[in-house]
Protein 1
Amino acid sequence: MRLTDLLHPHLDGVTTVVDATDGGLNLEPYLHLPDGVALHHGEQDVGEGELVLLSYGPDPELHGTEADCLAVLQRMRPGGRGLIVFGHREPELPYHRLLDTLVAHHCQVLRAAPLDYVHLHAGAVFARTDELLPPHDWFGRPVPSEGFATALRIADEYVLADLVSRSLRARVLDLERTLEEAEGAQGPAHQEGLAERLAAAGQEKEQLAAALRGARERIGVLEARVAMLEGSTSLRVGRALVSAARSPRRGAARLPRELYGLWRGRARTRPATPHTAPEAAAREPAPDGRLHLAHRAFASTPRDRLVIAGVLTDSTAADFAADAVVNRVLPHDGRLIVQRTDPDALVVQLSACTGDGPWSLTGTGLAPDLDRKLAELLTETRAAGRSCVLWRDGPASAAPGLARLAWDAVLDTDTGVRLASLDPAAVGRQRLRGVFRADSTRARLSELARRIGAPDPLDERRICVLAAPQDRADVARLVAQVLGQVHRPAEVVVPDPTGLDELTAAGVTVRTGEPLAPWVADWTDLAEDRPDTLLLDLMCAQEYSGADAVGSTLAADDYIFVPELRPLLVRRSLLTSGVPPELWARQGHRLFAWCGKEPS
């Protein structure tokens, strides 16, 4: 919730707002006061027609001190109102330190709500009164009750809310205690087991390297012997005689000439001497100990995408490949894939172990050789400093052996839905929004990335809004439109960032210059009405189509590729290329139409 949503319903009859906040907090850019309401700073008493602003938080330099807050409450007079903003998060709010002072000065809290800012997490509206006032609902409207009914409502809600909050707090404390006990119990054993596994992996790696070097030496000796035999005169004479015997007419005529040529060339063949051996060895390419993989993806640039080595099904690998670099491991090359591609994580999907495929029956106890190879693969991954993740998209009983392995993380969820696999006409726009926000493959991969500390695929959904507000009305309209979006933009680029402190406090980057987000929306015309689902629907259309630009057409085309459009959402690289929109389609860029109307 914004501060204006909490404050404005309580400005009826208020002509003066007194800012009594201390420290470094400046609430003026957040208020957007209507005409007829003046803002003043001071320490005067607050009475009828006035509303005071005060703050309370953990940072004295920003929110002021507790003593300053209590001093403001002492200056409240009948009819005065107040708004207090809290720097504490809701579960940590020490409201008990203010409660006695509020009661002593007849201040009744009418409404409290969370605030969506970085340094302000909650707010409460109160009034100085000599009689019990009806409380307000979530939308700031007074509840129709009075007198004894109001007291009963407040008392009942307090007792019931305290019951719910006590049970939740007790549950949290139990979970924290259980987690601490589990970590304490398995900590030393886990570390010892990890050290043993690492030592075993290192020893096994050295043994395999020694065996590989021995095999290559034997191969070199055999290749030298084969070359010596192929170059011998006896073998060449034998080949010439066999060739002549197979074709007597033609071969017999050529046989004397071939034997004479062998006799003439005998002097040019010299056995290798100790003096020539080093020169020949220098000309031979020395083996570098590397094996090269075919048909595997890798990048030499700084990593900005999630890289996965996975035991995955065909459909999951195809879905993940749209948002990550995916290298599927097989039982015979899994360790080599981990060594050469350096993935962010090894992901083992339970469905790939219980269905058809090269890893079928893994973890069921029916394929011990596959279980052993998977355990070796996990050891190799940990030795490389990477995470091992079990994606449990089915019942654990289907492959109970997987639970006995040591995993760094376990995801108990499905692999999500690719928007491109849905039919917008059949599922409806509301379903597309739900899949986009919570059930998409990209959202699932984002959860995986957060677990392992890898690049977040949801960064590809970041949007930059271009705007140029001219006056205070434009600033207020821009702030309201940006913060009202369900899919909030990541940054706003304007010629002058003055007056946009509320956007910064809400976590939206405000700056000048060129956009940095992958997608750009031009909101230069601030008089245009924009629904709160505008950016959400545009990103849904882009992720469904994979287009480079999404916009509207004169014919009101919807969810179809078009040769030209009025761009509403454009890829940053395309926008900064300098190519005019009418030439985008001719240069191979994909344009997707979105009409903005719900299908009937």
Protein 2
Amino acid sequence: MYRGSIFSNMPVRWYALLCCISLLCAVKSTHAQDTAIIRSRNFGIQNEIYFNDSLWYFHAGELHKTQQSIANTTGWEPLHYTAFGKENAPRGWQGVGWFGSWIRADTDLVNKKLAIRINHDGASEIFLDGKPIGGYGKVGNSAKEMVAMSARRELIPIWFPDTRPHLITIHYSNFFEVYANFYGFQTWIADYNQLAPKIQIANQRFNFILMCAAAQLILGLLHLLLFLFYPRQKLNLYYALFVVLVGINEIGIYQFYRTNSPMVQYVAQWLIDEGKVIMMWAAVMLLYKLDYNRIPRWRVIILSTISSLYFGAYIYKFFNHIEAWTDYFALVFLICMMDGFWSVFRLIKKRQKGVWLIGAGVVTVILLFYFAWEDIFHWWPYHLNSLRLLVMAVGELILPLCLSLYLAVDFAKTNQNLTAKLAEVEKLSALALAQETEKTELIAGEARRLEEIVEQRTSELREQADKLREMDMVKSRFFTNITHEFKTPLTLIINPAKELIANTADEEIHRNTRLILNNASRLLQLINQLLDLSRLENGLMEVSRIPLDFVALIRLHILSYESLIKQKGISLHFTSHWDKLWMLGDRDKLDAIVINLLSNALKFTDEGKVEITLQKDNELQGDAFSFTVRDTGRGIPSAKIPYVFDRFYQADPSDTRSAEGTGIGLAITKEMVELMGGQIRIESKEGEFTEVNINMPYQAAGAVLEPILELLPAGVTATMVDNKHQTDTDETKPLVLLIEDHQELRNFILQSLTGKYRVLTAADGNEGITLALEHIPTLIITDLMMPKVDGYEVSSTLKKDVKTSHIPLIILTAKADMDSKIQGIETGADAYLAKPFEKRELFALMENLISVRNQLREHYSRQDLWFTDALSMPSIERDFITRVRHAVESHLNEEGYSADQLARDIGLSRTQLHRKLKDLINQSPGELIRIIRLQYAHDLLQRRVATIAEVAYMVGFSSPASFSASFSRHFGFAPKTVSAI
């Protein structure tokens, strides 16, 4: 402290007071320099002052919300523009901060009601001289804490009590860039009494826009219902689409100006852009539909392509927050609408009634778009924006109203036409009624005549029915009598056969006798079924009941099939609820039922198992059993299951079925079961299983001592072992392939052929084809009806294969009709022999075919004949010989070219090639190679192409000496004799 200072004796409190006064003066002086003065003349036509530039201070981060801290801008950064974006944000801006501006009112505005209006996409709290006066949304320090709100059409009233500077402070946060490059805010100071009524009027206009949108939607819904009621008038559909789109677009405009959500406002603006594109498309399509019954495809493609491009561009603009761009949509809109207007103009030229209304509506829409929507002449200042939008919304109703009037006129015209048509129809109906009355009288007379004819014909049919009934009875009696007559010779066959079996020791006689007995027993079973069927038809079948053990009866029949089960390699399981089931039953009928079900199950099961179940049936009252036979065979197609109980029906009638049958077994079984009071059902799935179930009541009986009854064989008993290998190894005997699925017949023919022929056997067509291609037999005998592949396909396959095409083939079958024979010959078969056949006839046919084959072989085996006379061969044999010759010619000079190499070149094994060539030309592959070489050598020598030694090497001989020796042996003269000629 200086001694001479004027403050040396001043008290400390006065000194402090003097310092505060000096500081306040300095601050006040600073504020006075940056204070904005508002005057009445500055409000202008908008009744507000734009208050954004060069008057603000910024403080980043948070402040204590005390009146002293937020009523002072000391140390704050100056800010020149509050509507900043990401690029020009104030220093330190992290999404939240404080903004302040000093304002001083002119004398004429003191104590006058003013207002603050703010536009932002964030949240704000507004203070005047440190006191809160309002705000929008919820200010937060992060995006999660902040609640954004846009209130650009809201006013916050304020008063300035004097002309001193006053501080407006805004606590503001915004973490979203809803609109491009706009994080900040915009503020206005307005004359409340002037601006508030204008905002209220503008809001009312926006409400009217919403009412116009509702009217558009109602019109669209009405015409959509008209389209649903009358779909042929598609104009209503296009109309409804256009009007609904206009209504939706107006709702978007309303939301854009009235919503307080920034994001909703942004989406509404995007919808408005997309809406104008879709409205253009719908309007032009509607105008096209007026002129064209079927809109030209190229017009639809061009219009849809343009609309899609703009639609995608606005989507791109939306997601990339592009603020503004030049899209030339106004020009494109004019071109498209004028093209649509051309369709209307064409209708006007055709003098179509009422079309001028639509033309007027289209012109109105175009004018509204350019003078209201786009405002290309800037006729509408900002404060008339709501009026501009209202005029546009009301004007957009003109085209729908014009369209509605046109459709009403068109409907009236259609109604008039319909009325005229209706009158014409009534006139024609009256004429038709008179004609119909006349026709009715004619028809009545004709009906009376027809009744007389029908009565006469009915009498004739009744007489014919009586005659047919009588003939049917005669047929049934004849059928029954002749069937009974069959039993006598069968008895005389079966019983002596049994005596022979019992009294002979000769194995061959025993085997043949067993074959006779088995097939006679099968024939007797078929005869019994036919007799049962005849009795069932005539209602003469009776049920006789005797005590019997049903379990023992089932086991007895299972034993009769034991050999067949072993032969097929399947398993059979029998499960019974009872050890013995004594009841009163008809043994013959129960035998027939069990035999039919067991034989069917075993017949159609090639692998897997057969399960037989006998158990108590709890569904029927009293004593009843359930008898089930289930197999894992091929099953029955679902479409054929309803018919399996019909008489003479076979689920597989083809030539490739694997089992024989007449189609009456299940029919008789069903009728017998129902005759005894039972029910039968069948369930099957193709390729998986078949299950037959019988539910039948029974009357219990006491056990009695039964005699052991011998059952006739129910199925085929294997009497011979099937042999698929050759029965003889003598290569001089012809090799015969026998393809037959019936084992006993196959064994019988095998036994007959053995000794004179070597025999291969196959049980089906697939196996036969494989054996034929592998062994190349001399002759093939095939059955026609076989499982998997029938005889026709065997013949066709082997005759088309180069390995086996030359082999004679005999089809042996029970189908002896002319069509079947012709079909067999057409597949390439050499002979067709019907069953039953005479063994001598079969042998004679075989000898004849083999003899003819040998003659042909001798013919083609003569020296060089097959070179010069190959055209007389069948085409497939000629092609084969040509392939062999070309293969040898291509290796003519190769000394080591052998039969193995030739077989590989032809695509056969050496054995197959050897048998093919021996059967065809009676030459081995080695002999054939040698002959071809010598023939070419003879030609070369004859033409004097080279010397003898050179020719020898040219045709693949190792030395001239061996060549000369082979040449002399083959031709009978030396090579030099040829070259000397």
Protein 3
Amino acid sequence: MKTLLIAVIAVFLLPVVASAQFTISGSVSENTKHTSLPGASISLKNTSIGVSSDTNGAYQLKNVKAGKYVLTVSFVGYETQHKTIEVKGDQQIYFNLEPSAYLADEVIVMATRATEKSGTTYKNVSKTDIEANNFGQDLPFIINNTPGVVVTSDAGTGVGYTGIRIRGSDATRVNVTVNGIPLNDSESQGSFWVNMPDFASSVESIQIQRGVGTSTNGAGAFGGSLNIQTSAPGLEPYAEVNSTYGSFNTLKNTVKIGTGLIDNKFSFDGRLSRIQSDGYVDRGASLLKSYFLSGAYHGKTDLLRINVFSGSEKTYQSWNGVPEAKLRGDVQGINDYIERNGITGADATNLLTADNRKYNSFLYKDQNDNYWQDHYQVLYAKQFNDKFSFNGALHYTYGRGYYEEFKAGQKFADYGLENPMINGAPVLTTDLVRRRWLNNNFYGATYSFNYKASSQLNFTVGGAYNQYRGKHYGQINWSQISSNLNNSAHYYDGDGNKNDFNIYAKVAYSPVEKLNLFADLQYRRLNYDITGNDNDLLPLNIHDKLNFFNPKLGASYFINPKSNLYASFSIANKEGNRDDYVNANAGTVPHPERLYNVEAGYRIKDAQYSAGVNVYGMFYKDQLVVTGKLSDVGASIRQNVPNSSRIGVEFDGSYTLSRHFLINANAALSRNKIKDFSEFIYNYDTKKEDTYNYTNTNISFSPDAVVFGELVYKPFTSFAIALQSKYVSTQYMDNTKNEGRKLNGYWVNNVRLGYDFSFKGVKNMNVGLLVNNIFDKKYESNGYTYGSYSGGNRVTENFYFPQAGTNLLLSLNVKF
């Protein structure tokens, strides 16, 4: 590893030979009416040089060195053009684009995406960026280098169960849509990327909206939104094979095929993937499989696409984390933990002898999580004329699976079972293996109509109606001592049904050329019913009906074609998740959360650089947070806190130093506070909860600083080396800002290399290498804590999720 590091540093220190630099300028217009095309993308292929055309369709590419290039121009709804040029001096090159012979796939996501005119803070991630960072890790790790994002992995490697936070908000507050269709689970409200392995290989682009963003479908966005568009078809037939191998026996195999456009009307694309990894953590193994199939009819004014994709996962559970004493190698603390928690036998031996950072408390050989999820999408878009268009989708998702676990010393009564009699005496407990199942169906429709009344006025009306039907049940598939329940019977059955309706209207108006005003009004109604029995056998009979109004107003002002100012104000409302309802005390339901979001920023873009800076304020009413409070049956519950806030500033920029060097950087600095917070700690001496009050304390898992930098070196057009560096400051695991219950800040550095070449019969071959954590930093990116009082002393239990040290992934991608 040292040799690799020295080699990388040596390459960065190679001298760059200075040479003359020139400017390529011109304009982009459409061929039939000869009108200019503002916002067209102009770039030099295999370089970092690119720019968008201004309001008059004009462009300039500066600091271009002498040599041969392919100049590419693209614009939605028009055929992409390529021109091979030789630069010997300043040049003027003009483009007249032909309308596409078919409607472009980008129209599928236009209704829910933000633009420079919508006054929203966002980041676009292109297919090129996704491919460069896709080594088989889950999608959160592929977008880890975007502003304000923090990711974590239970197994420590980015494969298996992974998590993402944006601006400190967890996955339950990040709205995710795929082609405008909600992905978040309707009850838990999280997005589980482990159920969609290698999905990034079928993604065309991602827009990350921070804050409330624009109106979308699904649960409200309280930290951000991920708006995902699946792959558009290639114009020509293709085949692609991608393999990755790396540390911890991580192996990814992907095969992709596509027909290209058949008779300029039809296309078919497919992908088959398999990922496996032993994981960094002991027994943190994953076996993931998926496929993606898509067929489409492309008309000049309409588009019909059918997507079918599926994923299955078998993941050994590593979600308990590592106790703090074990992580620190504190032998006395480990023995105290063993005694305090009554740990005996093999479990105690495992705790004492396992690697401190790789410890996994589970030893049962089938302690697995198993889940299968199938997605069906029918997407249709119609351009009626140059002013009026429609976009709609029907969708169905079928999920089913279970996690299996060994449980020692379980009471028969806790499973509703009779105590068996042995030698005339009742037996009260047994060791057993149980499975807890989730079987769900999610289906509905989304739609949007767009009317462009004039170049100054644009209307969009859209919405969705979705239904969720979930079944929760448990089985005992082995018991050391048998009772009156067979293996196929259910010891509990619960249902969760949710109907979710929303409608929104958006208008963009430009009263003068440089000013754009934006309004976005959404109404959302949902009915949520939870019935049956919970896994503790208690009856459930919860019914809630909620109506939300979510208005958004914004403005953007273009100082010149290269830069603009924007500002927006939004209100969002969101219901609690299933646990908030189930764990609440009898007869109560959690109040919905409300967020007031203010965003303001400045963007600038030139041929050589692009940058954006924004300030934001997120002011919550009744935010749900963990307080340590227990329900009347002893379950942990989240409580509404009246006032909390996130206030911050974010920067995102890119600068081309020369033909060989490029710098990317972003930073998110924030202050995340709860005005008045009450912590509840159970006291075993008094059998009551003790209350401790705090003022102006930090929101948990909300770092004050997230900073990223990347230096890219391209000694020649087909080879690139990137040194990536990311810093995440201290995070507290509860809302008390206690130094004894925190995640230390960490600074992690990665190196990524990519080399492209081709030869007869092969369009492109790419060899990639990703070396993570090159300085072998020992850090933990996630954890949890709880406490109690006993014997007059507070007992705090902290658990952490260590991430892997230096590890690498080597990939080979071949395109035919």
Protein 4
Amino acid sequence: MAATDRSPRGHGNAPDRSFLTASVPQLVKQLTLDEKILLLAGKNIWETAEVPRLGIPSVKVTDGPNGARGAQFGKQTSATALPNATCLAATFSSPLAEAAGHLLAAESKARGAVCLLAPTVNIQRTPLGGRAFESFSEDPTLSGLMAASYITGLQAGGVSATIKHFIGNDQEHERNGSNSIIAPRPLREIYLRPFQIAQRLARPGAYMTSYNRVNGIHASEDPWLLRELLRNEWGFDGLIMSDWCGTYSVSESINAGLDLEMPGPGLWRAPALVRHLVGANKIDERTIDRRVAEVLGWVQKYAKLNPEVVYAAKGPEKVRDSAEDRANDAALVRDIGAQGAVLLKNDGILPISSGKVAVIGPNAKSAVTTGGGSAKLRSLWAVTPWDGLEGNKPDAVELSYAFGCHGAKFVRLLDEQFTAEDGEHGFDLKFYVRGRDGELATEPGLVDRWDVSDLLLGEFQEALGRPAQWVAELSATFTPHQSGEYEFGTTITGSGKVYVDDTVVVDASKDQEPGTSFFYAGIAEKRGTFKVERGRTYTVRLVHDSRRPVDAGKQTQPLQIHGIRLGAQPLISDDDAIAEAVAAARAADKVVIVAGLNSDWESESYDRPDLSLRYRTDEMISAVAAANPNTVVVLQAGSAVGMPWLDSVAGVVLAWYGGNETGNAIADVVYGRANPSGRLPLSFPRREVDIAAALNAKSARTDIHYEEGIWVGYKHFNARRIAPLFPFGHGLSYTTWAYADLEVAPPRGEPSPDEWRLEARVTVTNTGKVAGAHSVHFYTAPPAETATSLLHPEHALQAFVKLHDVQPGESRVAAVVLDKYAVSHWDERWKTWRVEQGTWAVRVGVDAQTMYGRAEFEVGHDMEWTGL
């Protein structure tokens, strides 16, 4: 297929770039009403609309937040996968967050995009939220500061950030129709604050509205939220776009200030409908002009910064796989993964330098690099935990392996045992269109090949011309590595069957149950078994009919999602696997268990049911630890998990989702090449009932009552004197740290709120025997008695700084500057930010429950402010 330009051409073959220097107000005047309306919705799923006659180009956006996936859901472009947001936040390193943004800018532009749909700064109100791994923290200040650094790096690379989801999408249950009922004070102090901090410090290019309602009004059509707060109070001058299919009205959203409906073409902003409402005086055309001007101003800004991207010939998305890019990206990803890893427990077993070590667990040889949903992408490369531990082990370490038990939700995707018909890696795909009479075409309308047997089929449907009904056939040649029973599993969006040769092994055409795959559009996985012989060749086929059984549940979202997933693996009994793991543990000096969750369990579209690891993982860990107490558990998860076996193991490392370099980062910590410096950006509860939002975490007949108010995360645990499993800020090291000489230099006189500054510093000493890095966390504590009689958290995080390469015996001064944000609360009566007068204090957090020192300062005059 011949390459075509993204933008209209000028004279000859050169694209018309007059838009880059055009006057936006003049362009708006030249547009017809229909052209204006087209600009207020996407051109397609990932691009804005264009107006060729005026030289207005379309620009492309791409999903984040831990990698730039590109335009394809099925045949995804390989990408650099950074560690997930909680891992990045656990580094407590603003420079690392900024470096991550720089890398993501380069990745976005390689995909032809000038906008990354990230970062996510929703609060981890409950660690069970499906997208908790995608957000930074339960703490609004940490979330806002990390987001600001991330945005700074991204936009320094010329790529627009899209901070999201604005606001109150803190859980996935019934997210499109739920109503987050949040009182003014927690709305301001907890849920809006990360956005406010990022807006003040980094000025993101775009905001994405959330799916849900907030206090009765959908965020995408809330004039107070979009116009009064964001535009007027905060001075935002960029683009406001909807989440995908998160627009629910025409006049309400346009009048409220939603500039861009995504995706496109517009479902609500169809020209005929909008023209009708303009004629009915429900929308003033001047309001449309304002919305269009915002879109054009944003497009022009990022087109000017990236003309080589916007005006390039539209060819395949690029992969940044040069030796230099690969080395630099790998070094950064590995560094973030190692600095973000949190040493939760260490009874002297770590670091490991010698001995027979049994590596056990369902995640050990799996490439678990990211969470699921919009954050999921195809990793350009992936170092598994086993790869990292084997490839980096000291000479005196001898490794062995045992599977342990199952931990994944779905049967493992097709691997190297499955090839296409000609013997090449991958499998063949054929698509047959069903005519209006219901007859299936005898010849395929599309023949293709791919190598990942988990496919959203959007681009294939597009290539077929988006027929109403069709049948897809995935076929592969299967040459098993071992004899015995193999388990096959499929989850699909329509109906289908899996064949081995001519035998139906899985029938997914009936008795379907709702599942979680494909953004909750797929069925629960169906499984079946087939006995195979090593070395013999079999033909495996998945025949998928896009039609849903008449008794199946209905898809209620505007985008009709179609997908197929096929997996196969040796049938393994968990009883046998646990027994083998126990035997391996007994034969070893030490054990490293790699377990946790993955993108099937932590994902957009659904929340986790509880804190436990899945299936029999907890049982397996307990059995292995009973056989060999010298056991270290390495956990891969994006948020808090339960640990009923904690007292039985010698060490626990929380590795999060570490991106491409997962295994190397884990090895760096386990073997002591990196001294752990990660600290928890969220509290780990002992039980689900200890979570502040435990009784109000779901939509209850559409309403979600945020009854915990400002008492979220560690503020809840501290106020109610509940002992968490691990507190916010917890993180051990291979050395020890001591604080001394905490002091503050308060402002003199009575400065205005914008001028108020407080310098705080503390001396940090490495009192151990190993060099390391250490983040220092500064909290403020309010006066014991307040004039407003409001309750405040006894202390709250306000700033942090990280010290690197501190040698044994060395002392360094950690210093920060605090501003009005560190002492302000939202006054619901006055509807302003206010500062309590009296004796305040700065404290340093060993963790959120253990404070060092108390440096007091006085606030002797009233301070009241609004805005930023």
